[in-house]
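Hey, I was hoping to borrow your eyes for a little while. There's a protein on my desk that I can't quite get my head around. The fold is given in discrete form, as structure tokens running alongside the sequence. I'd be grateful if you could look everything over and explain what you see. Here's the protein in full, and shout if anything looks odd to you:
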Amino acid sequence: MANNLLKGKRGIIFGALDEHSIAWKVAEKAHEQGAEFVLTNAPIAMRMGEINKLGEKTGSKIIPADATNLEDLEKLIAESVEILGGKLDFILHSIGMSINVRKGKHYTELDYNYLTKGWDVSAVSFHKVMSVAKKQDAMADGGSIVALSYIAAQRSFPGYNDMADNKSYLESIARSFGYYYGKEKGVRVNTISQSPTPTTAGTGIKGFDGFLNFCEAISPLGNASADECADFTVMMFSDFTKKITMQNIFHDGGFSNTGISEEVMEGFLDKNMNK
């Protein structure tokens, strides 16, 4: 339901690949709520995706940028402020990549060159985005910066591989940079730890479907969908969350605080009875 929650607000959305991606959903919801924004992704990702469709739908300019490249980020942020006609009120960082996962490398036998590239894309890029925005004084007072994370940053999920380390790094950057950005510029920095979501990236993880079902059975409210995550992200961009910063907020239907569910217990009881 559109109620102009972001009317007059400007931003940049990183990572919209296709209609299954959370960033894509955030762009749609932000547009519905009155925001104007620039869409960006790495050039190679943009060739693979359908971002032009999203640009047309939301009336947004598209600027290719490698989020690990400072020159690209400097150009992106400066041009975005010019295109949008003022400082930015929000930024979404929805970027993650593990070559080790793609190549099927076991966590105990990682390729460290792949590891370095993965954390640069998935975590260090978040620091680079904020560093460039801060140097250019591109964020409006009280602006909001959000990155998407996952509970594997705190707990062991074997199939998540080195992406768990990347997300831990990401959340640490949010806390550390958030302190300075808040003190000096009043900018909020948070991460959202989302339920497992059937995005293009998520479904590439080994055993994803089984894990999705397990989390659904554990979570009292069920898994949060990409659409629901987008709604929550829009709220984090809005003026209703002005005093929330340096937080990792679990948006997972209660999974993060549930030890076991009756449904899962019943499954094990049935299994034992059938022995």
About this structure: Residues 10-273 form a domain with the Rossmann fold fold (CATH 3.40.50.720). The CA atoms of residues 43 and 171 lie 26 Å apart. Strands lie at 10-14, 36-40, 61-62, 88-93, 139-149, 188-194, 248-251. The chain has a mean pLDDT of 92.
